[in-house]
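DM between two lab members

TW: hey, do you still have the 2-alkenal reductase (NADP(+)-dependent) isoform X2 entry open?
JB: yeah, one sec
JB: this one, 342 aa:
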Amino acid sequence: MAVVQNKQIIFKHYIEGIPVESDMELKVGNIKLEVPEGSGAFLVKNLYLSCDPYMRGRMRDFNDSYIPPFVPGSVIEGFGVSRVVESDNPNFKPGDLISGLTGWEKYSLITRTAQLRKIQQDDIPLSYHVGLLGMPGFTAYAGFYEVCSPKKGDYVFVSAASGAVGQLVGQLAKLYGCYVVGSAGTSQKVDLLKNKLGFDEAFNYKEEPDLNAALRRYFPQGIDIYFDNVGGPMLDAVLLNMRPHGRIAICGMVSQQSLSQTEGIHNLFMLIAKRIRMQGFLQSDYLHLFPRFLELIISYYKQGKIVYIEDMNEGLESAPASLVGLFSGKNVGKQVICVARE
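TW: and the structure you got?
JB:
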C-alpha cells in the first residue's frame, strides 16, 4: 500500500486558563494507506475540521466532565468531515463522506463508529456538516425548541449571537415569531446580526459599561428566553431582567477564562421571585431528534429562510491559532479549518 505524509496537530500538555498556540504543535510523519484486516476500522482523509469552545475543557486534567480530556502527546480530536479512503468495515466504503469525531491530522484511522453520520452530498457546502448541519446547529435546535420551550411573541436574548450556535438560535427564534436581540463583541458582528442574520436588535457588550442598563434599554418589557453562551456578568444582568416564568438555556460559559477558578453567579434569588427555569443541556441528550433537525434546517436553508456564516481558515497548520482565536472573539461566525478540498 502507498505510504503518504501525514501532518498532525499534537496536544502537548494540560492547561489552566485559555489555550495558547504553544499548547499544540504540528508534527509531520508518514502513514500507510491500509487498514488492519479484521479490525472493523477504516481510514479517512480529513477535509474540514471544527473549532469549538468545548475543546478547551478537554485540554485540562479534569475527568468529571461529559467528555474525557485529551491525552498529552496525542493527536487532538474534534468534529470533522472526512472521506473514506480504505475500509475493513462493511458499513463504510471507500468514497463515502462522513461527519463525526476524527483526528486533527490529514489522515485518521477510525475505530469508533457509534455517532458517525454518512453525508448525502448535495448543493449544501460540505463544511456546513460541522456547523449548520453538525453539532453546533443541532445544539441550537435542541436548546431552543426543547430547553427554551418557546412561544410565539416571546422576547428572546442570545449572547455570543454571531457564533456557531447563536446565529442559528436567533434565526430559529425569528422564524418562530419571537422578538430577538443578540449581543456580540465587535461592531462588525453587530452589523451582521442586524443586517444579515435578521435579529431585531443587537449590541456590542464591550461598549456597555452597565449590562443591566443595556438589557433594560433593549428589553423594557423584560426577557422571556435567554440562550446563554457566555455566563459571567451577562448572566448576572439577565437574571435581573427576566420576565415571570422565563427560561434560560445554559449552553456555554466562554467568559470563564480559567475553568479551574470559575466565578459564582449573582442574583439567583430572581429564580424564585420570577419563577425562572434555568437549565444546562448537551445536544447529545437529544440525538433521537437529529433526523427531524436535519429535515427542518435543510428545508429552511434551501428556501433561503436561514443563512449561515463561516470563518474558514486554510491548512492544518492554521488549526492551533484558529482554536485559540475563539477565546478572544477573532472568529466571525463558525470557525472551520479546511485541511483539503478533496
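TW: got it. The chain is about 20% helix and 25% strand. The chain has a mean pLDDT of 94.
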